[in-house]
Fold these 4 entries.
Entry 1:
Amino acid sequence: MSASLFAWIKAFHIIFMVCWFAGIFYLPRLFVNHAMDQSEPLNSRLCLMERKLYRFITPFAILTVLLGLWLLAANSAYYLSSGWMHAKLALVALLAVYHVVCGRIVRQFATGDNSRSHVFYRWFNELAVIVLFGSVILVVVRPF
């Protein structure tokens, strides 16, 4: 792969990752508000917002992963022999699971099955922050 193509793929990988994280940070904040107030007008509005946001960020998640795999395949001998990349891939897998769990929570709120408090969602929101910090540090510092 040419250096120019690699740079374009990396740029779009980062752009899609930023878009994914923007949504994955905001969605649990909606869950906090939803868990705090279940009044009908607000409940309907938050359900709509949660569903639309989840559907909006899912393609960014998919594109982030696909472009990341393309970058990985471009130099797999180096990346797969690097400890930092193994740790980063583990964090990406954790974020993908987090994304799926967010989708389940969206459906729970939509069906009125939420049983968790706003405090739980405040803590839940911090998981994505930890993944972001870890991923960026691993890619930039490459500590292993």
Entry 2:
Amino acid sequence: MLWVKKMNYILFDGPFRNALLPFTYTRPVADIRVGILTIREKWEMVLGSTTTTITEDYLVSKFPMVEMEENTLINASYTPNEDLVEMIQNLKPNQVIYDGEVIVAFRATETQSEIDFDTFEPLFCPKSTISVKNAWSIFQLNGAAIEADFQLITKDRNSEPIPKKTIAFNSAQIFIEEGAKLPYCILNATNGPIYIGKDSEIMEGSMIRGPFALCEHSTLKMGSKIYGPTTIGPHSKVGGEVNNSVLFGYSNKAHDGFLGNSVIGEWCNLGADTNTSNLKNNYAEVRLWNYDSENFAKTGLQFCGLMMGDHSKCGINTMFNTGTVVGVSANVFGSGFPRNFIPSFSWGGHSGLTTYLPSKAFEVAKVVMQRRGEEFTEHDTAILTKVFELSEAYRRS
């Protein structure tokens, strides 16, 4: 019998990792959700193989890398499409795919501890490839990513039937997984597909316009108003009005209030009647905190709301100004608009910020995760402790 050696695929963070903070404080680039799936899930589906990661040293204990005799390494900022996948699967040793000067993928051996790409044969990335290169591109590219994931997930599969008392437009672009409940709601897939994940629930009176993804075990509360392109990740609860936003998973915006052109990490909670501004009163270009320059930088966007890192929370009636960045494990509350940049492990709001001690933040994280049947592990403790250290300078400024 002829044995064919299976290729080992490794996703590496690449040069855009800092531009994707605060979300990459607590995960590799590969585990960012854009569309229905995370970037890692997309690659593993199209390659038919598990992947590991090259990432920051403090994340390695939770996200280890496995290296074999021969390896294909893929820049995790790039999402798969048919042309790129074919190029990557056909890579020969010492070939590299470029997007301009950025390395997209290459094939190398375990013995190549130092790689001189000048000796590699250059190939060039298909122009149709979607790449996630900064925090706001997560919501900006979400529509195209939902379209691509919808085709990938639903190919050669049949949807569960749309309930008789659910109103549906363009039902061919609606896919419902097993166990989903959606009585007396309106699904409009005219402008893009709608994906309803396994064991999820859309409560009565909800109105949804695609592109939209509700991932497994998540809930839309009664009377929700959702404008696409929006993704609600797994094990989340969402209510009120949402427009062009991505919630990674295990997060709640369970009450009325507006969330627009925003990205929310995991284990976040937005209190009742929290509202985000996504458009400046003078319609000017939005500036967003840049972790590299340690200043606010132009985005080229007119619409941009809230970027909130993992484990952050806000109290009832919180108002976030246009283009606000909240780091990891922050607790925001009080009247008035808080600052447009709230560092990780901050406590407070418009009236001022103090340090949110890790020991207190970890107590909350343990309780929150236990409620969803998840464990706050030693790996999580080590990662968040490192984030506290990395963000100390921002809390002093």
Entry 3:
Amino acid sequence: MLAYLCSKSKLMNCILFDGTVRDALLPLTYTRPVADIRVGILTIREKWEKHLSCTTTTLTEDYLSEKFPMVEFEANIMINASFIPTNSLVNKVKNLKENEAIFKSDEIVAFYTSNLQEEVDFDTYTHFELDEDLLQIKNVWDIFSLNDAAIKLDFELLTHGRISQKISDTVHCINKDQIFLEEGASVEIAVLNASNGPIYLGKDSEIMEGCMVRGPFAIGEHSVLKMGAKIYGATTLGPHCKVGGEVNNAVFFGYSSKAHDGFLGNSVIGEWCNLGADTNNSNLKNNYASVKLWDYESEKFKDTGLQFCGLIFGDHSKCGINTMFNTGTVVGVSANIYGGNFPRNFIPSFSWGGSAGFTTYQLPKVFEVAEKVMERRDLVFNEIDKNILQHIFDETSKYRAQ
């Protein structure tokens, strides 16, 4: 049953909407609403639900709505999913009354409505302007750039008033009060340094022998950090990931693997991805210039203003052993990359190939692989998932060589 807030005796339903930034967050939002982006320990949806004690639904693209539906009540609080909740913001959202809206500069943050969404007229609303600093995910690179602050917020949210599971005496801990193990989490003969930020181990996760970890760091449920891994903050492994090698300031959304040696830095990896052994990415240009990244809104490369920016990797994409990615590479959904030398730094969705060129990765083979990969995690690749990938395949055809 859908949970709710109560205001003036009305059932008040919370709906997370994509807002104006959805296209700037492609290719990661091809397969999910903005609310289901992971930054910090939790997804944005999980953060809001934890703060509000309320199950949320989603206003997103039509082709995603069957998997991520919206449920409307008589009264609804609409929340811009690109904003990360704070205690102060959540209190303001809870206290919204009918025809009131919260703004940050010109951006709508949240509003209370009893009308159908297409009938909302903000000229009739009372506006409240926020003067506090908020974390907002407006670009794909914000996910790793803001991950430090987001991990710290989530760590406090998840661990406040709670006691960690006992840490083995074989583990060398620095700033142990900022290290938290959930039930079933396992770590042995490792170094955990929480001097610069907290370290969080989710339920039934494992850090194997010989790992060296600097916080802020989070490893999700059932994820594994392989032997001898070197992890720099701020890094997040979502649930059901396997990661090894050297990782610096990267976010894995979940169900993805980089199980072997190789460097990954200042990067975001979606779900159902696999990076082959000794895959490496560059996160710094040889001339130390600011990195440009493919932007789906303008359909050209956009200056990030960052000196360090690595790899953005869409859901269901894979790469073979010894793959090299240049600084600021964007890979779409369901790409398969292999071969020597650097491939181009924008690889469209459903591309098959490498530096020598690409052909189209045809949908029957995409479906076959996705079904096998998800089955290994006891999940079903169903018709809804197929329809989503079919839509993305059609929408992104303009980027692939015909």
Entry 4:
Amino acid sequence: MHLNECEIEKITRLATEVATKTYYELAKQENAQLGRKLRHNTIKLLKHYSQLQSYVDNAITDSTQAEDIWLDKSVVKVNAIVKSKEKTALMMRHVNNMLDIYAEKCSGKQFKYCECMRRYYIDGETLEEIAESFPEKPDVRTIHRYIARGIEELSVLLWGVIGLNTKLS
């Protein structure tokens, strides 16, 4: 079977269209997956906010503090804790800064995205408790939407352009 130039051109154009469509579909799926992962990471940071802050406030900072903890004064263990504390402290400073910025952004608006998100994840209040505390007594589903919106917007602040690129997924 021999193909003429016109048929080869049609086949090539069709193959290119299919390949391009497949590429963009895969990229869209990866983008959506990354967006879910970033939102999941934002939620994990907020859920464990108190424990992480306590760790930063109480973890040892050098080997002299380890004398009471380990008899063998394992330098490796102490160095790992110090490095972990530094990384955690840096992340918590970033989280606190972004929470403050987001709270400021939300302060002049009627929607309570930041407040609901903070109260639910950091303070451990239930959706019902949050809804009941507002004078307008919004539905629990409204509070849930506020929290989801807060997570999405905070994720952009926490993760920068990566969060922005995945926001619309």
